[in-house]
Amino acid sequence: MKQIITHATAITFFATLPAFAGHVADTNGDEVITFSELQAVLPDLTEEVFIQADTDNNGLLSEQEMLNAVDTGIIPPFES
Ligand SMILES: [Ca+2]
Ligand SMILES: [Ca+2]
């Protein structure tokens, strides 16, 4: 299901939960994060780090993969 950024979403974001990082990076709202989407919010991101985070090797990060990556420190927590 597509998620459109709403005021409610923005308010949730201001709780600044690391868990929300995936939504921030997912600029086109398709619920997966591409390398370029993540690089837009993490300019220092390398492809190597992205590959490490992409545990099922499908070239995309799901929200769960993002959470795991932030949780394990592969990807630093970030705010918009
Ligand atoms: Ca996306
Ligand atoms: Ca993946």
Structure commentary:
With 80 residues, this protein is mainly alpha-helical. It has a domain at 17-71: Recoverin, domain 1, CATH 1.10.238. The chain contains five helices and two strands. A two-stranded antiparallel ribbon has the order 1-2. The radius of gyration is 12 Å and the shape is globular. The model is unreliable at 13-19 (pLDDT under 50). The structure holds calcium ion (2 copies). One calcium ion binds at residues 26, 28, 30, 32-34, 37.
Strands of the largest sheet, in order across it?
Answer: 1-2
Task: Give me the CATH architecture of the domain at 17-71, please.
Answer: Orthogonal Bundle
Topology, number of strands = 2
CATH C-level of the domain at 17-71:
Mainly Alpha
Instruction: Look at the structure and name the CATH superfamily of the domain at 17-71.
Output: EF-hand
Mean pLDDT, to the nearest integer, reads 81
Q: What is the third-level CATH name, the topology of the domain at 17-71?
A: Recoverin, domain 1
Q: Helical segment tally?
A: 5
Order of helices and strands: HHEHHEH
The end-to-end span amounts to: 23 Å
Gross morphology is globular
**What is the strand content?**
5-15%
For the CA atoms, what is the radius of gyration? 12 Å
Outline the low-pLDDT stretches: 13-19
Q: State the major sheet.
A: 2 strands, antiparallel
Strand pairing plus helix content: what structural class?
mainly alpha
Helix content: 40-55%
Bound molecules: calcium ion
